[in-house]
Amino acid sequence: MQLRDKTDSIDSLKVPTPAFAEMNLFAELLASSKPQTGPRISNNRRGIEIKSEREIGIMRQSGRIVATVLKEIMGLVKPGMTTGELDAYAEERIRSMGAVPSFKGYHGFTGTICASINNEVVHGIPSKKRVIRDGDLLKVDTGAFYEGYHGDSCVTIGVGSISEEAERLSRVAQESLMQGLSQIKAGRTLLDIAGAVQDHVEANGYAVVEDYTGHGVGRNLHEEPSVFNYRTRDLPNVQLRSGMTLAVEPILNAGAKNCRTLKDHWTVVTQDGSLSAQWEHTVLVTDSGYEILTDRDAV
Fold first, then answer.
1. Is residue 103 part of a domain?
2. Burial 277-289 (b: 16+ CB within 10 A, else e)
3. Where are the beta strands (DSSP E) in 118-222?
4. Which of 51, 65, 122, 190 fits 55 for a cystine, CB–CB 3.0-4.6 Å?
5. Which residues of the chain fall below pLDDT 50?
6. CA gap 294, 299 in Å, rounded
7. Is 240 domain-assigned?
């Protein structure tokens, strides 16, 4: 196939999702009509992009900023704080390192972080009125836009003394992420990642959320391809190539996989009220495996 110089685009892989596949793919946010006040969104979707060495170098920096902020928040959060306080901290720190919050203003989202508690699955809106309590399972997702490129990562934090159920769910979610990452290498496929995630999740008695997927990441926060976390024929099973940058993010529910969106049009919760956990990294595909660009252990 014909590839472009520097930032190549695999245009032949822009395969449409079948009409019967009812999935809220993160990449589909690019088509949203909501007002955009945050980092630039290109409406000209270019397919799957292969990053140049220059671009990879910038993405290492954006990823490092995200990793730094999340590591600090993990050490900072305590019962009695509000999600609004965490949001303000994240924004100040991202800007202090020369970046712009990826999420703030993105299709009208008002926060720098997504702060989702307990049965909230994704996209929780931070608020000065939302108090974090002892025993909460808090998901903090954030991104940084640095010199034209995004980093994106999520952690699940057990606040204070959490239940064994919550601790186990979070641990299995993090393990499933690493199981998926272990499959990443040029020449392998998205189904290799998905199968590893799904097998680990289901072996531990949990459900993979199918309504939301991971995604490519780079000049746009959400790019092709959709990085699904379960075996499916409804989405393109893309072969991985060195230079791809992906956000891999398994989301697990302790109960059923079904979710619903609240009236704020952002916050997604489990249909049955069960706990949910999520871990995410931005990674670079290499010939020998992968590199975690949002590695908190490296900051």
1. yes
2. bbbbbbbbbbeee
3. 120-122, 137-146, 149-158, 207-208, 214-216
4. 51
5. 1-38, 40-43
6. 9
7. yes
φ, ψ dihedrals at 208, nearest 5°: -80, 130
Query: What are the CA-CA distances from residue 160 to residues 58, 131, 137, 157, 232 (Å)?
Result: 36, 13, 9, 9, 38
Residue range of the domain that includes 171: 23-29+46-298
Cα(158)–Cα(166) distance, integer angstroms: 8
For the chain, the domain total comes to 1
| Cα atoms in the 13 Å half-sphere on the side-chain side of 93 | 22
Q: What is the pLDDT of residue 34?
A: 45
Determine the residue type at 39.
P
Q: What pTM, to 2 d.p., does this model score?
A: 0.88
End-to-end Cα separation, the chain, in angstroms: 39
Specify the pLDDT at position 45: 53
Predicted local confidence at residue 53, as pLDDT: 98
pLDDT for res 22: 36
